[in-house]
């Protein structure tokens, strides 16, 4: 079986790229198609495959400014020649599903979320954009929405990474989807002895506006409690400027450093509304509780009172109250870890294989 994997861009290793790694393990013969490819930023697992970038990869500063080429991405996807591929798996949160598969091919879209900057978070993105972008966004987003909805018809089956995303797929594309959690490598993390726990809280992830890192930093400035921030992103310098004396902003860190901080923190702070959110699962796999905003994927992965607590307003006071409430709960690290393991890699492999095999059987039976 000839397999094509389509991913929006390969410029770093975040949650979407971890899904691509798992798909590469499932289909070692697969070719990968993407808008922009920065091999030095990508894992060896992905680099071992044939990677075909679009023409956008040749445009000026594409590896850094790929988002500015968004208007060209629908056309770029349609230039990929997928004749001869039996199975196409698109990985969608930027434009990826709009390829043109062969008539007899099976096209499965693993959807991290419909493009948030033109759908559920459009007004947030426009509000934070510069003057020229704010001027252009209404007409550009209108065009992209029309293409995005029409290209959904090129997909045989949508797989959502959470119930939250399944609801968005139903709202924006008008179709149902199968929910399969992304593959979190829960076995890569371990519980630290109680004697090694330290007195800091931890925030991990890309520092971008919708994840609300600024809110967490302001809360810990106000509480005068220790917070360690790990991650890069557009807001890194802004967060460093905002950080008070009790907040340490480490920037991007190697996995071993991240793993050690997960295991020794008092709790993970997760202030944004995520589609799924691998970071809370990684913290729980380390036996540590999570303080999360009570919307989005976190409500599907964090068990209130068992593996963490929620706050329901994006305010300093709400985060402070949630952190204070941890003192009243006796968390069992072993129980937290067992809870996290239901989101491990094995469930992803088993469920994705079963779903694709079922779809292939249905497709073959319809030809008889």
From TrEMBL:
Highest taxon of the lineage: Bacteria
Domain Glycosyltransferase subfamily 4-like N-terminal: 14-187
Domain Glycosyl transferase family: 196-342
UniProt keyword terms in alphabetical order: Transferase
Record keyword Transferase present: yes
GO molecular function, one term: glycosyltransferase activity
One Pfam family hit: Glycos_transf_1
Protein's UniProt name: Glycosyltransferase involved in cell wall bisynthesis
